[in-house]
Automatic annotation (TrEMBL):
<keyword id="KW-0520">NAD</keyword>
<feature type="domain" description="NAD-dependent epimerase/dehydratase">
    <location>
        <begin position="7"/>
        <end position="238"/>
    </location>
</feature>
<protein>
    <submittedName>
        <fullName>UDP-glucuronate 5-epimerase</fullName>
    </submittedName>
</protein>
<dbReference type="InterPro" id="IPR001509">
    <property type="entry name" value="Epimerase_deHydtase"/>
</dbReference>
<dbReference type="Pfam" id="PF01370">
    <property type="entry name" value="Epimerase"/>
</dbReference>
<dbReference type="InterPro" id="IPR036291">
    <property type="entry name" value="NAD(P)-bd_dom_sf"/>
</dbReference>
Length: 340
């Protein structure tokens, strides 16, 4: 029998961490979950997700902030994780405008602590979450990993881009195989209360108007959470190796010539107009939305669109769930969970 592998997931009580935890447990991993249960959004939702994970004997939870000095170093020394998936972060573009400090602590100091722990006890593969926002002011579509990703438009995006640079330097200096994901607007049941789908569904069921930014002229590459986790699962077993020369890097590949390093978009590659997402909620709820048309919000970009060819080449898989089906599943979960 193959030896059981240990995975450490930071942000395991979060939306994506919860799904990934379930998936890795199903696949026979022992999972150590680290999550501070921060109050950025309803901690009860995080507790419920964590309680579900704890039903599995292979899961253990550590509820501490990752930036706490030595916390991750001690966990790495004790458990020697084979695989590390770093999802813990202060997320959210708009919140970062008024609350930048929490992004420094969770995203920069937290990632530093993780990298230091990995330097002392190197895992087989580290996979870290970055974001489509890392593409910054780029307007060329679709976003491809080999494009320049400069001029971040929000402090959230700036900290995420900085973690990419930090992780690359550790990959290079200490020969740590690192995959950096760029996720594109992830949604689904158990999703985040600060994101549009959740806010619109809540408001519509309460008979309130929804705030539609940029007058609805907004396009997002919505990615269904189970598809995203399928892609992560496949990438876990595709650790990058240090290329022998720059010529070894295939066209479209974002491997660094100096480090076992890769950047991979995980997105549907089928951008959806905000209006079509709202129409999908209206259909799922059987009611029309009242709309407050608002200007573009600072920090936001009008469109995101993933080029998913690198993901397809590496894994043979690209996300496939259609927005209508994904929204239908979210709305069914929401009504059941909140009994509305
Ligand atoms: P989430 O907020 O639901 O999950 C993050 C989890 O990390 C939370 O449970 C939170 O309590 C925990 N956390 C935050 N700061 C922490 C700290 N300092 N120490 C320990 N735990 C901490 O968000 P998510 O949607 O699951 O996102 C996961 C990752 O994916 C994040 O890094 C996020 O930036 C990135 N991402 C998400 C999306 C998306 O659309 N959901 C898009 C792009 C990137």
């Amino acid at each position: 029998m193959a030896e059981q592998r240990t995975a450490l997931i930071s942000g395991s009580a979060g939306f994506i961490g919860y799904y990934l935890g379930q998936r890795l447990l199903t696949d026979g991993f022992r999972v150590i979950g680290v999550d501070s249960l921060s109050d950025y959004y309803d901690p009860n939702l995080k507790r419920r997700r964590q309680a579900n994970l704890l039903q599995n004997a292979g899961f253990s939870a550590v509820n501490e902030p990752i930036e706490k000095p030595g916390l991750l170093a001690d966990l790495f020394a004790e458990h020697r994780p084979d695989i590390v998936v770093h999802l813990a972060a202060q997320a959210g573009v708009r919140y970062s405008i008024d609350n930048p400090r929490s992004y420094l602590e969770s995203n920069l100091v937290g990632t530093f602590e993780l990298l230091e722990a990995a330097r002392a006890h190197p895992p087989q593969h580290m996979l870290l979450a970055s974001t489509s926002s890392a593409y910054g002011a780029n307007t060329e579509m679709p976003y491809r990993e080999t494009m320049k990703a400069d001029h971040q438009m929000s402090f959230y995006a700036a900290t995420k881009k900085a973690t990419e640079a930090m992780a690359h330097s550790y990959a290079h200096l200490f020969d740590l195989p690192v995959t950096m994901f760029r996720f594109f607007t992830v949604y689904g049941p158990w999703g985040r209360p600060d994101m549009a789908l959740f806010k619109f569904t809540r408001a519509m069921l309460a008979g309130e108007a929804i705030d539609v930014y940029n007058h609805g002229e907004m396009m997002r590459d919505f990615t269904y959470v189970e598809d995203l986790v399928e892609a992560i699962r496949r990438l876990i077993d595709a650790a990058p190796v240090r290329p022998e020369s720059a010529e070894d890097i295939a066209e479209g590949d974002s491997l660094s010539p100096v480090a076992p390093w890769r950047v991979v978009n995980i997105g549907n590659s089928k951008p959806v107009q905000l209006g079509d997402m709202i129409a999908a909620i209206e259909d799922a709820l059987g009611m029309k939305a009242k709309r407050n048309l608002m200007p573009m919000q600072p920090g936001d970009v009008p469109a995101t669109w993933a080029d998913a060819e690198l993901l397809r080449t590496l894994t043979g898989y690209v996300p496939e769930t259609d927005i209508r089906e994904g929204v239908r599943r979210f709305v069914a979960w929401y009504r059941d969970y909140y009994q509305v």
